[in-house]
């Protein structure tokens, strides 16, 4: 009997480099990201974590000087192919930013906007159902269900970030990219976001950039350590923090630099 082939990776990067003009920010990085897992990107400031994360849904396209080489696939399809619909790609690979950035619209509209432009709801009640389900999944429903028409920007920072997560979830993504999603939040709001990441893990592939090693250890199953644009080490989070293979990883996690 031939052994079953391993499950295909949700996303794979092969030999990815990113340049800003002449400057190379990401150097020949290859990595796989899987469903049901949280992957953390850690490393000192400026090592290219955010730049690399943004290649996964082509957010670098919005920066005129940025150039990406190598290959990134989603379910085996090259996301940089000429016929890739980038709007569709960003619905499948959603993103949550460091600073919560709700639209200056109502809580309801923040979540309803994506499903509406992507034609995901067949009726008003269908749309209301999507909004409720997304807010529930983002752990915000109980706090906002009686004031859905209030402005999203009037919420607390932590609530705004959960609203942004609800907005990403509403279009039914497969992958969620989070770029330091809790670094602008207080410890209680941070704990809520971390709890939420745990709850979301079963449904999506999640990739999180974090400055905070304790946070990476708490929320992720896999960790990638970056230094000077290179991927130094990638492995199971427990192993990486307890028995790093590379000297540079060891120096970083023991606080010798960074
Ligand atoms: N829009 C840009 N134009 C030019 N250079 C950039 C741009 N964005 C980032 N860089 C440079 O690319 C390198 C990697 O930056 P990036 O933000 O990806 O690192 P990072 O590891 O996420 O850092 P941090 O943790 O501080 O956010 C840095 O040297 C940075 O100055």
UniProtKB/TrEMBL annotation:
GO cellular component: membrane
Keyword line: ATP-binding, Nucleotide-binding, Phosphate transport, Transport
ABC transporter domain span: 11-253
Keyword Thylakoid (UniProt): no
Highest taxon above the source species: Bacteria
An example Gene Ontology molecular-function term: ATP hydrolysis activity
GO biological process: phosphate ion transmembrane transport
The protein, known as: Phosphate transport system ATP-binding protein
Natural source organism: Sphingomonas trueperi
Source organism phylogeny: Bacteria, Pseudomonadati, Pseudomonadota, Alphaproteobacteria, Sphingomonadales
């Amino acid at each position: 009997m031939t052994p079953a082939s391993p499950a295909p990776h949700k996303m794979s990067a092969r030999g990815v480099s990113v340049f800003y003009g002449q400057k190379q920010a990401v150097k020949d990085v290859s990595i796989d990201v899987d469903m049901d897992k949280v992957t953390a990107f850690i490393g000192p400031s400026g090592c290219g974590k955010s730049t690399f994360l943004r290649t996964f849904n082509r957010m670098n396209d919005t920066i005129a000087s940025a150039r990406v080489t190598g290959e990134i696939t989603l379910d085996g399809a090259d996301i940089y192919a000429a016929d890739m619909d980038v709007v569709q790609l960003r619905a499948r690979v959603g993103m949550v930013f460091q600073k919560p950035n709700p639209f200056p619209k109502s809580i309801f509209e923040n979540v309803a906007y994506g499903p509406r432009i992507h034609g995901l709801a067949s009726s008003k009640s269908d749309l209301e159902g999507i909004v409720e389900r997304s807010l529930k999944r983002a752990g915000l429903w109980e706090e906002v269900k009686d004031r859905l028409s209030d402005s999203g920007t009037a919420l607390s920072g932590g609530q705004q970030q959960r609203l942004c997560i609800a907005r990403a979830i509403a279009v039914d993504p497969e992958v969620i990219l989070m770029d330091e999603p809790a670094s602008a939040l207080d410890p209680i709001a941070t704990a809520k976001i971390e709890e939420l990441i745990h709850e979301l893990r079963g449904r999506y592939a999640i990739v999180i950039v974090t400055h905070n090693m304790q946070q990476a250890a708490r929320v992720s199953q896999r960790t990638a350590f970056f230094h000077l644009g290179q991927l130094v080490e990638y492995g199971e989070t427990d192993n990486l923090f307890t028995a790093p293979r590379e000297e540079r990883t060891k120096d970083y996690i023991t606080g010798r630099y960074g």
